[in-house]
Every structure is written in C-alpha cells, then in structure tokens.
Queue: 2 jobs
Job 1
Amino acid sequence: GAGVSQSPSNKVTEKGKDVELRCDPISGHTALYWYRQSLGQGLEFLIYFQGNSAPDKSGLPSDRFSAERTGGSVSTLTIQRTQQEDSAVYLCASSLGQGPYEQYFGPGTRLTVT
Amino acid sequence: AQSVAQPEDQVNVAEGNPLTVKCTYSVSGNPYLFWYVQYPNRGLQFLLKYITGDNLVKGSYGFEAEFNKSQTSFHLKKPSALVSDSALYFCAVRDAAGNTPLVFGKGTRLSVIA
C-alpha cells in the first residue's frame, strides 16, 4: 500500500517568509509525528497527534512553529517568519497508535532558508 | 525522563565480518525499543523492535538485536556485513507506560568496506 508522503520534497525560501509543509499519513494510522533532522544530526521531536486527543506540542522550538491535522488524516506544519536556523529536513511519520507500534516515515521535506 | 545513547558516531567493518552497533537507554519503567536505518537521501526505515518476550529480536535484512535489561542495552548485530548495509542507524526508546513520544539516539554511521 501507499506509504507516508510529504510535499514539497524541497523548499527554498527567503528569511522572514512563512512556509507550509504537508504530510499524508498511511491510511488508518491514528498517530502522526513531525521531526526535524539537521545535517548529520539525529531526529528532533517536534509534535505528535493521536486520534482526537490534544496534540503533544512539547518539542516545538518556538511559537513560530505550529501544526494542525485535519480530519484525523493530513497534517500541515507551518513555520512563520522563517530563520536560517530553521534549515533542515522535516520528517513526518505515522503509526497505528502509540505504544509498541513502529513508525513509518515519509521521505522528508528539505527546507533551505536563504 | 527517557533517553538513548549511541556511543559511537562511526563504525567501520570489513565486508563479511560481524557488525555491532551499540545502544543504551534509560526509562523509568519497561522500554519499547526500536532500530531504524536511513540510507543516503532516503527516509528512515524500520528494522526491528523489542516489546516483550524473547530478548533476541530478529528483523529485516538479516539484522538482529539483543535486549539486555541489566545493562539497559539494545545492541544491533549482523553476523556478516554487506557493503549495502552502509547507512545511518538510529536506536529509539519510549516508556511502555504513559504516553511519551519516541526518543531517538543521535545515530551511528556504519561503513562496510569491501
């Protein structure tokens, strides 16, 4: 079946502009996660959604970052007033739920802020 | 709080030799443990997980990992390395109790030399 998809695959934006990154999870997966991976670094947790529960936003680095998940499916990560330090690969993952379920990752969106 | 340590940034091994990528963890309760692999310019792929039961877990591509509760370790192993195993490997953990996000290690780059 179809995996997790993300768009765009690459995004170049000017400092100060807003960007939206999209994630389409695997159908039927109730949990959705956003991570950030800087060059050569590990994964930094940003936010996760589980069903209809309030999202866990504990990893968002600043109030310029926000995310929503509509209809329990597609999610959008928005970064306002982008800064150069926001440049990274943004990864989305989904899973059947929390607990023992493995996460399936999308290919990522490479964001470059100039 | 939960955490993961991958003490080696880089592991080099000759093709055909056994390989080990180390991971230690810290959680307050029982752990769920995962290994993921990231090939160049690709998203993360799930390799294997430990939830409960047998301490030796077998996964994709001939990899296995051994859960050692007393040493709080979950090392990834393969009896005979292939050049195609060269990639970035991530260990991850979450507490089986509660609803905390998965925590990833910083990753270990494996290079298999022909």
Job 2
Amino acid sequence: TQLLEQSPQFLSIQEGENLTVYCNSSSVFSSLQWYRQEPGEGPVLLVTVVTGGEVKKLKRLTFQFGDARKDSSLHITAAQPGDTGLYLCAGLKGGKLIFGQGTELSVKP
Amino acid sequence: SAVISQKPSRDICQRGTSLTIQCQVDSQVTMMFWYRQQPGQSLTLIATANQGSEATYESGFVIDKFPISRPNLTFSTLTVSNMSPEDSSIYLCSATGGVGQPQHFGDGTRLSIL
C-alpha cells in the first residue's frame, strides 16, 4: 500500500497546455517537498510547503498544501518542453521522506 | 544548498561481486540517506546513515546486503554485496541539515549487474 498516492503517473501534453499533478494521503505530514528529476541526474528540490493551506509560486508552477497537511498539488501553467521530466512529491514523516510514485511529464513542442 | 557528489556515476558488475558507492557532501550535514530507484520510478529509502554508529535500515533492507559507513559528517559509503541482476538500479545519496530542512540529492550511481 502506497502511503502517498501521486497521480497521474504519466502525462503527455502539448506546449502551452496547463496541467495539475496530485499527491494524496490519509496521513498527516510535517511538510511536503516537490522534486523534479531529469534522466541521468538526481532529484532537484523545487519547493517545500509546511503550513496547511499554503500556496507557493515558482514562475509558472503553483504548489498547494492541503489544509489538513495530507495532500498537495502542483499546477503548471502554459507548459513548455523544458518542463519535461519526472516530478516527485515527498512527505516528511518521522524525520524521513516518503515519496509518491512520481509523474512522468512529457511536453511536446 | 549542499552539493553532493557520488561516485562511481555508473558501473557494470558481475553477479556475486560487491561494489562500494561513495557520497561526499561539501558541507557538514546532520543526516545522510541512501535510496534506490528503478529508472523512471520513485525512490525507496534503504537506510539512514548515522555518523559513528550503525545505519538504521528500512523494512526489506539488511546490513549484510547493504553495509553502510559514515565515518564523519560529510562522507558516507553504501556497499551492494553479493550482487544479482535484481540489484540493477539507481542508488542515490541524499543529505539534509536536520529534520525539516530541505533534503538534497546526488546524481546517483547507475548499477547494472550481468
């Protein structure tokens, strides 16, 4: 049983479209981190959300932490081919990161 | 943020052999971790590397198969012992300044066992 359910697992869209990735859990997390990983590299931290209801923006990326700190979403506006990669959410629980399954995003020009 | 260097970046090994992966952080960090990742999939925590004491292993991972050392605050090694094709994976090191601090990753070691 996956503690942190991430969806969708695969997403292929055209340049300029919007998309949302979801991470859901029945557990409460101290914080939630979003990473992006490209082939041959390690995950790179995009953002950490800590407070329930928190919203953070990073250029065209908007991250939201649920009020109950059990879920989070990543919304990308006007996706570009450079956004292609594996997006991972990870919840902090007991001092350890628990990762979702990942979302493989492909943005076609 | 801390810069984390792993080596080797990749290796191809024979069944039954062992390989030690090194992880070096450019600043003192509180916690270091080792993960395994199948290509295109998510990360699974193997263990927490504790400085000066035995690592703390997650369910499904044991010290005999994945011995870990952490002699100081900036360096750790993971050995994959008696390798089989099922051990083919990406092994990643990460580090953080403390609980609640951002966790940063190395670029991983891509391991293939023939």
